[in-house]
Amino acid sequence: APVTDVQFGPMRLHQDQLQVLLVFAEEDEQSNGFRWACDKAGFRCHIARTPQSALECFLDKHHDIIIIDHRHSRYFDAEALCRSIRTTKASENTVIICVVQRHTDREESSILPLISAGFTRRYVENSSRMACYNELIQLEFGQVQAQFKLRACNSLFTALEKSQEAIEITSEDHVIQYVNPAFETMMGYQIGELIEKELTEVPINEKKADFLDTINSCIKIGKEWQGMYYAKKKNGDSIQQNVKILPVVGQGGKIRHYVSISRLCNDNNKVEKTCECIQAESQTDSQTCRHKDMRKGSLDVRSTTSRGSDGSSQRRRSSMARVHSMTIEAPITKVINIINAAQESSPMPVAEALDRALEILRTTELYSPQLGTKDEDPHTSDLVGGLMTDGLRRLSGNEYILSAKQTHQVAGSLSSPISLNDIPPRITQAMENEEQWDFDIFELEAATHKRPLVYLGLKIFARFGICEFLNCSESTLRSWLQVIEANYHSSNSYHNSTHSADVLHATAYFLSKERVKQTLDPIDEVAALIAATVHDVDHPGRTNSFLCNAGSELAILYNDTAVLESHHAALAFQLTTRDGKCNIFKNMERNEYRTLRQVIIDMVLATEMTKHFEHVNKFVNSINKPLAALEENGNNSDGESIKTVLRSPENRILIKRMLIKCADISNPCRPREQCIEWAGRISEEYFAQTDEERRQGLPVVMPVFDRNTCSIPKSQLSFIDYFIIDMFDAWDAFADLPNLMEHLNNNIKYWKGLDGRNLRVLRPPP
């Protein structure tokens, strides 16, 4: 079978033997003439007698040329058949010919109905063998070859679509005709917003007009232009780009298109020259060599990989060689190397999927979902801004002094501790059901005159045998609990010792669940209870963002990073080890103390909300999904497989982090009245922060928490939707907590009911 080489720009295409389908209801001179012509031209020929057999044959063979007999309508409807074929994807580049009768006695009829039906052209019947042969040869070097080149364009567009550079193609009049996904991502537009629009965004430069003239004078005479300029994204942000604009010469030797290729500029992607104009015509060997080198470095279209990849396989091998030469290799680097190596021998669908995985892995924040548009719910935006960022880093003359020079309560300054056996009856009664989830912490708060932590701590620590594990006396534990509680601020509406006691209760409840007991060791239980007790000690009632914006001494001490959580952990150990009377660790063996200390610190730091989604996603992927897979595969009874998942050191860390995170923000899963009370307290604390920010002239971190306008139901629903639901779904799947999930659903309905009535308060009016 003959194979033809076709030159298409710099591409050399190999065209296999052409296939022709003849659709004639009956054999006659005309069909025989085309059959003979196919044999002479070396084309493979198939014959179909009915529309159904023609369609089936075409879908099987994908012919290059189809010739349909339109002379005798009594056999079949040729136009209907053509339309049927054109509805198939396979016919996109097929040439379809209509054979019509020769009429010498009437006026020539219009060809438009045939074109509308999908025919490429018509052939007036002529059974001469050479006439048929000439028709096929003209088709081969005319329409068929043109369609063959168009088919090859799909590979070029695939390269453009997968290119990491942003590519824009405009007409000679600067009307946008194409942009690739990388351009959409860089500029924030969708392709439909740009196509057929004139270029209105111009480079921003000190000498804008001169700058544009320089570019235009270069590209209009057929030269390439390369340089830096600023462009505006859809959202108004200005970005600096390294751009190359290439004129494309077409029909009549005129410039018919301009291709613009852009990359974002950064410190690792500077070009040596601000701009340069490159002759696009013939050059000397040295110029050509320089030109090719520059294209390789800055214009690699990366046709074999997608936007997230490292470029062509040649560049990947070169890059990987440099990476492998590093003496230190981060785990994420190893993962990317493994994926890159797998891509080299993978089929295209797998390689493309791996490209998408690489693109995700290279983002700066792997775990935090990105808020969508600026129209996002303001309550969610403010909660994320207030809880998951470290402020605006704005320098302020108003320094917010906290804790660095503050006097903390120590054991010697407190009244002598009371014994567990001497607890007043009202307090004993308030703690009767402390092992149940519906335990009422506010009743204990009232009974203890806002000192619930000492009493609840004594009871829970006794139940878990903490003194025995630590080898410390009950009086030391009582002194320690008093010191820790004394350093919670009773003036805070939310972050006070009642919150600490509530988190301690939730932690103890979770530790009693069967799946958790299977997973954790005694030292983990001790660490979890201590971490819950101290996790917010000396909290000022303000967020990390506030402290960073205010330039507080704590923010400076901890470099604006996990400020409060670092302070809570550090102060807890300072208070504990400062005085032997309350040092619950003083009798521990050194290595065991170091291990315990590390777990406590890790759990306290896990309560910082900037890592919220990282902790939740790791828990889901490392624990929930493997356990679910074991159950789906019928291995639920395979204790060893489940134990392997639960007991690995890495997974135990994830479980402990998830446990204290869920305990810390479990308010929406409490019985309704408790949930409402906690919502009121946290709202009041945020209102007070907004008031102080305005008084001090600081950035207002959460503007929706204005006591005059805030909708508490909306803020609760936003918090639950963004932070709570997914986390507790995952924790429930692990620990089996149907009662918590029932409370959560009821509380969501309650807040939605208030919001639906446009009420902004905690409770409906009587």
Automatic annotation (TrEMBL):
Belongs to the cyclic nucleotide phosphodiesterase family. PDE8 subfamily. It is an enzyme of class 3 (hydrolase). Binds 2 divalent metal cations per subunit. Site 1 may preferentially bind zinc ions, while site 2 has a preference for magnesium and/or manganese ions. It holds the Pfam family PAS. Its cofactor is a divalent metal cation. Residues 288-299 have a biased composition (Basic and acidic residues). Signal peptide: none annotated. Interacts with RAF1. The interaction promotes RAF1 activity. This is Phosphodiesterase. Keywords: cAMP, Hydrolase, Metal-binding, Phosphoprotein. One of its GO terms (molecular function) is metal ion binding. One of its GO terms (biological process) is cellular response to epidermal growth factor stimulus. CDD domains: HDc (cd00077), PAS (cd00130). Hydrolyzes the second messenger cAMP, which is a key regulator of many important physiological processes. May be involved in maintaining basal levels of the cyclic nucleotide and/or in the cAMP regulation of germ cell development. Binding to RAF1 reduces RAF1 'Ser-259' inhibitory-phosphorylation and stimulates RAF1-dependent EGF-activated ERK-signaling. Protects against cell death induced by hydrogen peroxide and staurosporine. Zn(2+) 1 binds at residues 499, 535-536, 664. SUPFAM superfamilies: HD-domain/PDEase-like (SSF109604), PYP-like sensor domain (PAS domain) (SSF55785).
